Amino acid sequence: MLAQVPILQQWLLLLAAFVLFSSFVLLAQARLVSAIHAFAWQGGLVAAVTLVVALAEQSSHLYFSALLTLVLKALLIPWMLHRLTRRLRIERETESLRRPALAIMAAVALVIFSYWLVLPMVEQDLTFTRNLVAISLAVVLIGLLMMVLRQQAVAQVLGFMSIENGLFLAAVSATGGMPLIVELGVAFDVLVAMVLFGIFFFQIRDSIDSLDVDRLNRLTETPEEGP
Amino acid sequence: MADLVTPWPWALVIAQGFLCAALAPWLVGWVRLIKARLQNRRGPSVWQAYRDLYKLFAKEARVAHTASPLFRLAPYLVFAATWLAAAIVPLVVVNLPTAAIADMIVLVGLLALARVFLALAGMDVGTAFGGQGASREMLIAALAEPALLVAIFTLAMTAHSTNLASVIDYQLAADIIVRPSFLFALGGLLLLAIAETGRIPVDNPSTHLELTMVHEAMILEYSGRHLALMEWAAQIKLLLYGALIANLFVPWGIATDLSVTGLTLGLVAIVVKLALLGAALAIAETVLAKMRLFRVPDYLNLALLLALLGLLIHVILEVGT
């Protein structure tokens, strides 16, 4: 039962639950700036999970990767996204999902699906963090769902970044973190991806005068039927 | 179990029921007082709610000539159902003889019964406002009730019982541990309590503006003792949700035996908990603005999501460990 679990692991479960909740917030948040804040919170929570795992397993390199996650995903990338939205003048942009309740229920279904996928692994009784794998898989799938459902390019990038958060969480919880060199490489990749996305935003806006990527589906320059 | 048939616990059951009814106006008066202070007003005294009820009981009850017998009957039914629901929630002491019927699903059922008659009474006279209020109340109720049940099932799955007394006993027996599913259920239940008791941001209890009122619209045609019963029932409902949240999630202090010290401590504990919850409610009502009616489904969706996440997190994270 939960009562026998040490206090650090209880905190771990709590933080993991909040990571999952932040994924839902990210999915349903209409205002772009608030979505970026939600993403920053998710990054901070993932960093906290890493820190708790580091404390529990006494592995020194996880301290470093917790710090890296905090700086990169909770501070640097949200700040870059903020600056981009300011420069693109879309800070006040809101973009609501067409059927928010349905999207949320789809995300709930994804959580159940990922739990079902992880079930054989849970029965094998690997490590104490095995339950977190289901949560991280759910975060990955919800990030994918977000990229499918959202039309706004910045929101899709947020979905992509939260997929990365989910993968990182899976790595930390299932294997006690990747080797440091891999982690540095991934962090650098994410940073480069962010810079490239920024350039893409400007390109997309220059060519179709909006960041609504659904408009990229149209090939001909037919007159607009409305916004 | 032998002492359960003695008259003493049953006397306590009745005393606790009357205490519920007696404390309810105090809670509403307390929330009003804190709200007034936050708005830089002196505000009425805490006892004003009692004076209002007394005044209404003394007045003559007028009934519209288009009203059916249901209109006269509804206040008594609403009051009785709400009071019974409140009386089975452990308030001061847990494990009374009524614990056997203190099932959470029964509780939701009793509240639904009260709500059905409230809505019927609203539509009975045939005025536009009554029907409008009833329709809005049903919109809120239809969305809130499933979420309420899911939040309750989260607790029930942890304690392996839908009985309120068993859940409280389970909580008291367990060590103080961090339980993510309870946090989510608490969040969902707080949102639902606000929606169900008609407080800001879902409904404003102190307005008669036709665009926004929900609960007030349904009882607009009532006067005198009928109105007093309806208002009292609403106050008891607020107390019920307060006691439910306070005793399910923070049960420490509630009396577990029938000793005098235990009972006194239980009484003090519940009054302090309700005062804190009431103050929190007053602060929330001051900070938040009432939302449009069409935003209410989104709000209740959030409550449902929190409750569902609590359930899922319980299954994923807490069962296996």
Automatic annotation (TrEMBL), chain B:
Topology in the membrane? Multi-pass membrane protein
| One Pfam assignment | NADHdh
- Superkingdom: Bacteria
How would you classify this enzyme at the top EC level?
Answer: oxidoreductase
Q: Which GO terms describe its molecular function?
A: NADH dehydrogenase (quinone) (non-electrogenic) activity
User: What EC number(s) are associated with this protein in UniProt?
Assistant: 1.6.5.9
Q: Where in the cell is it found?
A: Membrane
Predominant subcellular localization, coarse grouping:
membrane
Which keywords accompany this UniProt record? Membrane, Oxidoreductase, Transmembrane, Transmembrane helix
Q: Where are the transmembrane segments?
A: 12-33, 73-93, 99-118, 138-156, 176-195, 238-255, 267-287, 299-317
Q: Which PANTHER family match?
A: FORMATE HYDROGENLYASE SUBUNIT 4 (PTHR43359), FORMATE HYDROGENLYASE SUBUNIT 4-RELATED (PTHR43359:SF1)
This chain's protein is named NADH-quinone oxidoreductase subunit H
